[in-house]
């Protein structure tokens, strides 16, 4: 898969036994294969309506199919596994546009979402059955199409004693709430707001780096309290779940509105604090008691962000996924391997309490 930060293709090779809540998953190998600069530039061009066009979307759908297929084949080679030994590939693809709130167009009111990197290309290049396009069935059923990882969270991280929040901090932040002794119907999940996306955009603009490595820039800046208070008044934060967001709301255009509002390092520090405080605010508004927060995604590798999050959640244990036996970097790729596995088994894998879909649904399109 590739996420909203567009760092590269995350690829996980896993062994799966069974499916559903009793599934057993073993990570065999994981790697991230960075995008070539030209590919990354084209993806970002697609994110901006003013620079995108239908020809580019069509062509990049197949280009990314080739890129994802190459990543799958490289992963197999790195792990010493032949394609004939692989039963199934699951590919999330690259979200080009996500608009889960219905709008009226051509006289028809409809929500929409588009992930590119066609799974048919992956199946053709690898010779392996490929499942992709996971979000559309949930959106078609009235859901947000996101987040989808809560299904994996429920299968692997629910417990009898702890009220646990599983927080991903990728480009966007999203949380899965697993109350103690929960059933799937008790699971709630939603996008909390910006994750690394705003931090990355400011770091790239002011410092020429793709991200704030180790949170060093934020650590050297001061949080601008007035600007943070302004950011925390953003209307998305007050929206009732289920809800999801993306680059359309917290991307480069949003970051551009902060240019000139302070010293660059202070702006990065403030954006980092915004991510942490938006997460804590979401918990207070919309979750029940939280005993432990398990953080994954790139944000878990940012010590400054993790410190800010812990400070915003006094009395709550904040740990990374490794503390509960899961590879933070590989988790989302593992999730789509599970969704592919359970699609083949005919098992519903969306979580209506997370997406707002009207019913449980089998997610994914199968390419033979």
How would you describe the overall organization of this protein?
With 368 residues, this protein is of the alpha/beta class. It has two domains: 8-148 and 330-367, Nucleotidyltransferase, domain 5 (2-Layer Sandwich), CATH 3.30.420.40; 150-324, Nucleotidyltransferase, domain 5 (2-Layer Sandwich). The protein contains 15 helices and twelve strands. The protein has a five-stranded mixed beta sheet with strand order 9-8-7-10-11, sandwiched between helices. Strand 10, helix 13 (303-312) and strand 11 form a beta-alpha-beta unit. Helix 1 crosses helix 2 (54-79), helix 2 runs parallel beside helix 3 (119-126) and helix 12 (264-286) crosses helix 13. The protein is globular.
Count of DSSP-assigned helices = 15
Overall domain count: 2
List the helices and strands in order: EEHHEEEHEHHEEEHHHHHHHEHEHHE
Q: Which CATH class of the largest domain is shown?
A: Alpha Beta
Percent strand equals: 15-25%
Q: Spatial order of the strands in the main sheet?
A: 9-8-7-10-11
Shape: globular
**How many strands?**
12
Q: Which topology of the largest domain does CATH recognise?
A: Nucleotidyltransferase, domain 5
User: What is the SS-derived class?
Assistant: alpha/beta
Average predicted confidence as pLDDT: 95
Q: Measured on Cα atoms, how large is the radius of gyration?
A: 20 Å
| CATH architecture tag of the largest domain | 2-Layer Sandwich
In this structure, how is the largest beta sheet organized?
A: 5 strands, mixed
């Amino acid at each position: 898969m590739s996420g909203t930060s567009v760092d590269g293709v995350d690829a996980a090779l896993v062994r799966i036994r069974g499916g559903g809540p009793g599934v057993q998953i073993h990570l065999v190998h994981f790697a991230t294969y960075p995008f070539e600069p030209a590919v990354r530039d084209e993806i970002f061009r697609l994110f901006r309506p003013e620079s995108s066009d239908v020809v580019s979307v069509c062509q990049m759908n197949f280009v990314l199919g080739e890129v994802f297929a190459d990543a799958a084949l490289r992963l197999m080679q790195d792990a010493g596994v032949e394609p004939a030994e692989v039963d199934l590939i699951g590919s999330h693809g690259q979200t080009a546009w996500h608009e889960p709130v219905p709008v009226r167009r051509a006289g028809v009111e409809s929500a929409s979402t588009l992930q590119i990197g066609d799974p048919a290309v992956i199946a053709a290049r690898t010779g392996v059955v490929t499942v992709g396009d996971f979000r559309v069935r949930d959106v078609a059923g009235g859901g947000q199409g996101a987040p989808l990882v809560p299904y994996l969270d429920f299968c692997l991280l629910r417990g009898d004693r702890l009220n646990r929040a599983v927080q991903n901090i990728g480009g966007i932040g999203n949380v899965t709430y697993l109350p103690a002794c929960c059933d799937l119907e008790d699971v709630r999940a939603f996008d909390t707001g910006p994750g690394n996306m705003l931090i990355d955009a400011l770091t790239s603009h002011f410092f020429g780096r793709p991200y704030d490595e180790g949170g060093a820039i934020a650590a050297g800046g001061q949080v601008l309290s007035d600007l943070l208070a302004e950011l925390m008044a953003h209307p998305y934060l007050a929206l009732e779940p289920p809800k999801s967001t993306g680059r359309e709301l917290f991307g480069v255009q949003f970051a551009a509105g902060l240019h000139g509002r302070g010293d660059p390092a202070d702006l990065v520090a403030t954006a980092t604090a915004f991510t942490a405080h938006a997460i804590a605010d979401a918990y207070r508004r919309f979750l029940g008691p939280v005993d432990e927060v398990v953080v994954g995604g790139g944000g878990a590798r940012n010590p400054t962000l993790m410190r800010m999050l812990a400070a915003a959640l006094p009395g709550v244990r904040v740990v990374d996924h490794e503390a509960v036996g899961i590879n933070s970097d590989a988790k989302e790729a593992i999730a789509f391997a599970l969704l592919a596995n359970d699609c083949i088994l005919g098992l519903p894998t969306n979580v209506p309490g997370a997406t707002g879909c009207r019913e449980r649904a089998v997610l994914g399109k199968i390419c033979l």
